[in-house]
Amino acid sequence: MIFDKPTSVDLLAAINHFLDTKIKPEVPPHLAFKLRIVENVLNIVIREIEKGDELSNEVINLLQSLMESDTPSVETLALLIKEEKIDLEDQDLKDLLVTLSKNKIAVDNPNYSTFKKLIK
Amino acid sequence: MTEELSKALQNKLLEVNIEGKILNLVPLTGGASKEIWKFEVQTNHETNEYILRKGSGIEGPLAIKTSDEALLQQEVRKIKAPVPEIVAVSSLEEALGDSYIMKFVEGESIPRKVLRDAEFKDALPLLAFQCGEAIAKIHEVDVSKLDYLQEKTPIDQLNDLYATYESFNQPSPVFEYTYLWLKDQDFGDTQSSLVHGDFRLGNIIVSKLGLESIIDWELAHIGNPLQDLGWICGNSWRFGQNEKVVGGFGDLEDLLKGYNSISQFKVNEHLVRTWQVFGTFRWGVICLIQASAHLNGSVNSVEKAAIGRRVSETELDIADLLFLGGK
Predict the structure, then answer these.
(1) Which end of chain B is more exposed for a tag (fewer CB within 10 A), N or C?
(2) Which residue of B has its CA nearest to A77?
(3) Is the residue at A24 inside a domain?
(4) pLDDT-based confidence at B245, cuts 50/70/90?
């Protein structure tokens, strides 16, 4: 990247801090509720920038060994399942679906109760 | 805008002989799809509190018209199930739009408050049984009078959800797997009943005595009633209280005790689990629907955009239920 600091993550974090400390105390309750959603969205983007590649690559590697394909993708796996061209009882498939779901939630909402339970 | 709404409310209330000054009209934190306003009417002798529930006139593919929700609540009230009293109904063409006015019910609907505030400490242990009873009552409503509701078998409903998921062109290996798994299940051979469709914390009003009122009927339909039992057990509606299977506050055993104390059809835990997977898939598809309203440009809403990233919660819950022994 050719860009100066602050990084995109720094910038988003600064916006979040501003919303939380300066705006939230000023808005009525129904907007405070929406503001919390806005802050959550910014946090998703921050996590995706920071960890997205690593979390995706882990799944792509698992897909590669499961599907024995050079161009493995989530879409192709969905199609294989849909057409029942893969053994639905295969433990590797089940494990992959768990990892895929965990890695998505690690960006979308790492505070989600099921995720916290499973990574304990 | 508030002034205009106030005027429309006043005129509507006049039609049902309630004449007074509209005071303290405030928006409440409601669902993502409807506006909720609280207000007071000051007449010569007293001041009463009311709620306005207002739709945009554009329903999602699973939702019913707001004015039909009002008709439905009136029907449910006849069999003494706890629902707020409807005061006036407005159709889309009127100044107030597709909406209704109901009496305000004292209590709390915000899930995290119900689960955490000391006020409800004694109510929570009773709530699962009470919810079971209330759900069983809803299922006793005479469906022949509900011709504005769609009737769907579990398989029809499943196929509709799947077709909706497919239409968004975002293939999900977990959802594909879930669909195949669900197609193979026994959903329970019940009579067609009124299904609330979204019975959970957030859509019930709780007081320190327990369940006071059932609100938010927009996903109501006619079908297999066990859907309501599985739905409230979904982890999406436990609000972080993972270990309390029923709505984040109770145990499945108590929910079923309450339900089976009234219902002719006796339900077991296995059937509820199947419906829990169904419900979790359904919530995932509803999240997709909500997000699509933002993605296709029909609304610009950060709330609806954000909900697209909640689909992964339902995928993880299903993976937990099907592969990891989750409850």
Answers:
(1) N
(2) B173
(3) yes
(4) very high
Evaluate whether residue A1 is within a structural domain. no
Reported as a single tens digit per residue, the pLDDT across B201-236 is 999 999 999 999 999 999 999 999 999 999 999 999
The pair of three-digit structure tokens given for residue A1, joined into one six-digit string? 């990247």
Q: Which of B110, B299, B303, B316 has the highest number of chain A CBs within 10 A, making it the mutation to test binding with A? A: B316
Residue of A81, A84, A91 best to disrupt the B interface, most CBs of B under 10 A: A81
Domains and CATH numbers, chain B: 2-103 (3.30.200.20), 111-323 (3.90.1200.10)
List the single residue in B176, B306, B310 with the smallest CB-CB distance to A82.
Answer: B176
B31 pLDDT band, cuts 50/70/90, is low
Q: Which distant-in-sequence residues (6+ apart) come within 8 Å of B272 by Cβ?
A: B226, B229, B230, B233, B252, B255, B256
- ipTM exceeds 0.85, yes or no: yes
Please determine, for residue B312, whether its predicted confidence score (pLDDT) is greater than 70.
Answer: yes
Residue A112: inside a domain: yes
Check residue B1 and give its pLDDT. 65
Q: How far apart are CA A78 and CA A94, in angstroms?
A: 13
Tell me if residue B193 falls in helix, strand or coil: strand
Q: Which domain holds residue A90?
A: 8-118
Q: Is residue B222 a contact partner of residue B146, using CB atoms and an 8 Å limit?
A: yes
Q: Where are the alpha helices (DSSP H) in A1-120?
A: 8-18, 29-67, 74-82, 91-108, 113-118
Our count of domains for chain A comes to 1
All residues of chain A having their beta carbon less than 8 Å from the beta carbon of residue B29 are 29-30, 33
The pLDDT value given to residue B20: 92
Q: What chain A residue is nearest to B327 in terms of C-alpha separation?
A: A114
